[in-house]
Amino acid sequence: MMSNERRKTIGRQLNTQASMVEMTDTQRSQVFTLKTGRKITFRFVRVPASDVESKTFVNQETNGRDQLALTRESLKSIIQTIKFQQF
């Protein structure tokens, strides 16, 4: 006989509707709970296109992708998801 109890979800859960606080762009944030239980808050920051190069950077120790290979075509499969789950 099957139980009606739901199995505990393991791994990271992305439920943007439950954890996203919709406010003005400068007040939007999303909370992620790490495996350790520590909660991390990401805040939405709008960077004008003209400022991206001077105000942003890539840490090669944690994100070692070849930045020249990141083109609109190579990112086509994930571009639509970025607005829902990444800050």
UniProtKB/TrEMBL annotation:
Record's keyword annotation contains DNA-binding: yes
Alphabetized GO MF terms: DNA binding
Region annotation Disordered: where it falls in the sequence: 1-22
Keywords: DNA-binding
Biased composition (Polar residues): 12-22
Name under which the protein is recorded: Chromosome partitioning protein ParB
Species assigned in the record: Salmonella enterica
